[in-house]
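Input structure tokens:
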């Protein structure tokens, strides 16, 4: 069974499909159907892959006096100091 429908595809994709049809002696319709089947089958099979497990690494404790919740502020302070140094000593 087949269904007739209108499908708008990008020009570059249409050119690739037409080239594949010429090279494989298949009709344009056969090439489009085969490509869609392959893509959909691949998408379904990737859903069966196991989840990735991330193993954390302990880098040790942070130096006393450094609050890990304020790293962004520390970075801002460091960048601000660098900016002031460069603006007072250009070149």
């Amino acid at each position: 069974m087949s269904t007739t429908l209108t499908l708008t595809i990008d020009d570059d994709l249409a050119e690739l499909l037409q080239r594949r049809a010429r090279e494989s002696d298949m009709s344009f319709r056969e090439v489009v159907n085969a490509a869609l089947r392959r893509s959909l089958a691949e998408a379904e099979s990737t859903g069966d892959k196991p989840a990735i497990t991330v193993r954390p690494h302990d880098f040790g404790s942070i130096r006393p006096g450094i609050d890990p919740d304020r790293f962004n502020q520390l970075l801002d302070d460091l960048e601000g100091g660098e900016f002031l140094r460069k603006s007072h000593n250009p070149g």
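DSSP finds three helices and no strands in the chain. The helical segments are 11-24, 28-46, 71-88.
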